[in-house]
């Protein structure tokens, strides 16, 4: 989230599109309802009438997979009706920048951008650039009228997205579409705030990333980023999924969103040089220019004293990926399916039920030599060898189960969607033989290291040199129990030497050896500081000579009334509650909306440190310097090299502006927007197990999958709870009354849902919540299924199996998240 949960109460219009917060993020609803009590409006755009829709002021149905068409139409509506926040986009976005004259977009190239290579399914992005002046700064047209400026190119591309055309694609009735546009665009004035809540309804598509980008562009056009009650808010999934991405659990990032080194980045200097953005814009803070300090401090944290200036701080020990290599979920299971892995740790997951195309995943598990399930319980993954259709005699995989204790039985931090790192205490001792994950990792580490020390192996250095100072040691040197506070402090980082400011004479001591570093601005590139994750530097600091865990704070003060609660736990970065908060003020530093001031620049008050006039008041200011319009002022989008937000965003695989493409499996022969039916840059696996079916009479209905409040994920933690199972006992398929009639299927009947990949049993839920869509003068039916079930429990099989037996393994072109929200199925009586 750019903002945070409580901030939802500050909105005037809340758009729940791509998420169902009432069912899946009930706490968010508390704050949404708080906003509604003050007159705010809630809009819900979802293929079916969800629990959020039931509480909404305005509900609009949408055919799954067509959100870019819907949002593209909103962009066009905002532009043609002059509803954008002009001062904001001219000063704080790249709307005025002139683009390379050779750049061409979908209106010129029938759905493509310039630079497309059909054989590689990839773009050469050389024309997706800006025109530069002689100082190397993008040329701007502040009147926004130059035909090559971002604003005009935007207008040109989305002029094709007329309400009539959009309604024809999405199946959203024209009047509902226009009502949503009108209400949401009303937040384009300085005194109104609009926010967006999304989750898997947007991301699980071959165009998932561009769905989110389309909305980000709308939020910028309306001046809704950086303000209280605004933002782009990813309602994240598991309680600590924000934390897990912050700590680099994805293959392409290290902790703190530093890129994973690849084979071409041969040494630390090259890594820093190639991954640190440069700018000539004098008003840009360009925060990522500090990358060198963060990566060096990270290397010092993981390799400790073994990391020295002479050995490049151990950079060569870090694992490198091949250039262009992708090691995301679908790719890994594809490799496993091809027999390229010996072993697999399924750690806190249940891929036999959660991964797309479960038949392929389950077959892949059978090609392993060994599988370790680290989990609270046995599940469909650990027991795949005794699953439906599997003959245990044919399986050679040796399976181990390591029982793990639950979150209640261990201490540590979790980071919620609002970026709040919150400390939790152990409630009870672990039950039975179960142990905390960290203790299992600890044992594993010492065992593996011992083997490397004894036997050498191909390349022992990365393991042998790891620093592992997380608690008391036994006589053999092994850590007895991992101390979560020792880990949290290492993540924050230490001064490893006395550090001086050498710019003043005589040099002034800024940090004492052994002290915790107070914030990332003090991290160094010469190995004198450590930090396991620069973003969390400031989460565990020194106060009166003693370490203080900021994440354990429980202060309830809220002086602004905006719900910032700055003394409650701790928020990254440096306890800032709303990121890009300097975009909430005008270029002179005064709040755009004086009734909802998040920040303001007090030009006369003296700064406590420098003694000079001018201080920021309110939330923790984003980046240094005064307001953008003042002398030596800085632009608000500090993570962007240009200092402004990207309406034109050349970073993604499929183009700088989102363009509507159909889902890989769709009900339409053609995309009425262009000749490109599907996203031209997605990876298509060529295995029989991954067959795809569009416009195939055998699979005529759009299928989607979602969650219910009563179950959690693959249901391993909820299917065993009899009171939850009683409320949602089994897999169901929700369909319209019209489709039920057409198929002769009554509510409550058992049916079989099939796709090109498999079949699953379900109970028919014939309801008013789905309505047939009118798409391009034809009728398209959509059905929906929850994905919480599996064959293992209930033991009598009455819950039926996972709906991921149906889903395709195709992923978003940027993230490779599977397209579990739009694919083609059939339904027949059992
Ligand atoms: N009770 C409960 N809560 C949970 C979870 C759980 O399993 N149970 N899981 C957690 C996790 S890990 C996550 S990631 C989040 C997910 O949170 P959500 O994204 O809210 O979860 P879903 O129910 O999968 O999907 C949300 C909505 O998207 C709609 N949808 C489907 N296709 C489309 C489309 O093309 N466009 C649009 N606009 N909407 C579409 C569905 O009808 C559904 O109502 O929930 C978290 N919260
Ligand atoms: N069709 C379809 N498929 C989907 C989705 C969808 O919307 N539709 N959503 C996707 C999403 S958003 C997600 S996040 C994935 C989730 O995919 P998975 O993570 O594979 O599924 P979970 O059921 O959440 O598995 C978590 C496991 O961790 C165990 N566990 C709980 N606590 C602990 C602990 O402290 N330590 C350890 N070691 N184990 C623990 C639980 O018992 C459970 O077996 O599924 C994805 N799959
Ligand atoms: Mo998730």
Automatic annotation (TrEMBL):
Pfam families: Molybdopterin, Molydop_binding. Residues 704-822 form the Molybdopterin dinucleotide-binding domain. Keywords: 4Fe-4S, Calcium, Iron, Iron-sulfur, Metal-binding, Oxidoreductase, Periplasm, Selenocysteine, Signal, Tungsten. One of its GO terms (molecular function) is electron transfer activity. The keyword Ligase does not apply. Residues 2-444 form the Molybdopterin oxidoreductase domain. The keyword 4Fe-4S applies. GO terms for biological process: anaerobic respiration. GO terms for cellular component: periplasmic space. InterPro entries: Asp_de-COase-like_dom_sf, Formate-DH-alph_fdnG, MoPterin_dinucl-bd_dom, Mopterin_OxRdtase. It is found in: Periplasm. Its cofactor is W-bis(molybdopterin guanine dinucleotide); [4Fe-4S] cluster. Belongs to the prokaryotic molybdopterin-containing oxidoreductase family. This is Formate dehydrogenase major subunit.
């Amino acid at each position: 989230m750019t903002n945070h949960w409580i901030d939802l109460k500050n909105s005037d219009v809340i758009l729940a599109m791509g998420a169902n917060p009432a069912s899946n993020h009930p706490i968010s609803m508390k704050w949404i309802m708080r906003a509604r009590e003050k007159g705010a409006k809630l809009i819900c755009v979802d293929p079916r009438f969800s629990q959020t829709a039931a509480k909404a002021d305005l509900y609009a149905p949408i055919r799954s997979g067509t959100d870019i068409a819907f949002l593209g139409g909103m962009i066009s509506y905002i532009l043609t009706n002059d509803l954008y926040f002009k001062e904001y986009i001219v000063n704080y976005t790249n709307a005025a920048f002139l683009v390379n004259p050779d750049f061409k977009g979908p209106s010129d190239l029938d759905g493509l951008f310039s630079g497309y290579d059909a054989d590689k399914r990839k773009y050469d992005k050389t024309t997706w650039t800006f025109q530069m002046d002689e100082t190397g700064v993008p040329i701007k047209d502040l009147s926004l009228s130059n035909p090559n400026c971002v604003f005009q190119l935007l207008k040109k591309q989305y002029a094709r997205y007329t309400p009539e055309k959009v309604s024809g694609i999405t199946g959203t009735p024209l009047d509902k579409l226009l009502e949503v546009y009108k209400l949401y665009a009303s937040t384009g004035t300085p005194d109104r705030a609009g926010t967006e809540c999304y989750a898997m309804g947007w991301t699980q598509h071959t165009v998932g990333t561009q769905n989110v980008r389309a909305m980000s562009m709308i939020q910028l056009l309306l001046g809704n980023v950086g303000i209280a009650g605004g933002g782009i808010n990813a309602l994240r999934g598991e309680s600590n999924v924000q934390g897990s991405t912050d700590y680099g659990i994805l293959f392409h990032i290290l902790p703190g969103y530093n890129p994973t080194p690849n084979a071409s980045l041969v040494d630390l200097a090259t890594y820093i040089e190639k991954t640190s953005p440069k700018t000539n814009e004098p008003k840009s803070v360009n925060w990522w220019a500090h990358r060198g300090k963060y990566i060096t401090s990270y290397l010092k944290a993981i390799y400790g004293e073994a990391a020295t200036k002479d050995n490049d701080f151990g950079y060569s020990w870090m694992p490198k990926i091949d250039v262009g290599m992708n090691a995301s979920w679908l790719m890994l299971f594809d490799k496993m399916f091809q027999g390229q892995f010996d072993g697999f740790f399924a750690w806190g997951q249940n891929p036999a039920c959660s991964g797309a195309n479960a038949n392929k995943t389950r077959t892949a598990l059978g090609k392993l030599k060994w599988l370790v399930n680290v989990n609270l319980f046995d599940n469909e993954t650990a027991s795949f060898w005794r699953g439906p259709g599997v003959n245990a005699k044919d399986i050679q995989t040796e399976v181990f189960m390591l029982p793990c204790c639950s979150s209640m039985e261990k201490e540590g931090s979790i980071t919620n969607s609002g970026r709040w790192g919150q400390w939790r205490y152990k409630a009870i001792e672990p039950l039975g033989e179960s142990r905390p994950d960290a203790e299992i990792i600890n044992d594993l580490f010492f065992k593996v290291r011992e083997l490397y020390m004894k036997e050498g192996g191909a390349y022992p250095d990365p393991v042998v040199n790891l620093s592992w100072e997380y608690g008391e040691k036994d006589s053999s040197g092994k850590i007895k129990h991992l101390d979560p506070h020792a880990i949290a402090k290492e993540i924050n980082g230490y001064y490893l030497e006395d550090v001086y400011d050498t710019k003043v004479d005589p040099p002034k001591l800024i940090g004492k050896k052994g002290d915790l570093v107070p914030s990332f601005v003090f991290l160094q590139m010469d190995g004198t500081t450590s930090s396991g994750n620069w973003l969390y530097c400031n989460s565990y600091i020194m106060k009166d000579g003693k370490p203080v865990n900021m994440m354990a704070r429980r202060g309830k003060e809220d002086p602004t009334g905006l719900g910032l609660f700055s003394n409650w736990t701790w928020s990254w970065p440096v306890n800032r509650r709303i990121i890009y908060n300097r975009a909430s003020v005008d270029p002179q530093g005064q709040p755009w909306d004086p009734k909802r001031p998040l920040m303001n620049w007090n030009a006369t008050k003296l700064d406590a440190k420098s003694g000079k006039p001018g201080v920021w008041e309110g939330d923790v200011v984003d980046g240094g310097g005064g307001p953008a319009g003042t002398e030596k002022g800085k632009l608000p989008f500090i993570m962007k090299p240009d200092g402004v937000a990207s309406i034109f965003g050349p970073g993604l695989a499929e183009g700088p502006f989102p363009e509507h493409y159909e889902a890989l499996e769709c009900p339409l022969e053609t995309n009425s927007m262009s000749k490109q039916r599907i996203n031209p840059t997605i990876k298509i696996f060529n295995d029989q197990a991954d067959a795809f079916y569009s416009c195939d009479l055998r699979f005529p209905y759009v299928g989607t999958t979602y969650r219910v409040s009563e179950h959690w994920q693959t249901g391993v933690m909820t299917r065993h709870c009899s009171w939850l199972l009683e409320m949602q006992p089994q897999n169901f398929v929700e369909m319209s009354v019209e489709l039920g009639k057409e198929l002769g299927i009554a509510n409550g009947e058992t049916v079989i849902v099939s796709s090109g990949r498999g079949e699953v049993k379900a109970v028919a839920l014939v309801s008013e919540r789905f309505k047939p869509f009118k798409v391009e003068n034809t009728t398209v039916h959509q059905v929906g299924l929850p994905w919480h079930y599996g064959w293992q429990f209930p033991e009598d099989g009455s819950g039926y199996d996972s709906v991921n037996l149906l889903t395709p393994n195709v992923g978003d072109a940027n993230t490779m998240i599977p397209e579990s929200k739009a694919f083609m199925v059939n339904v027949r009586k059992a």
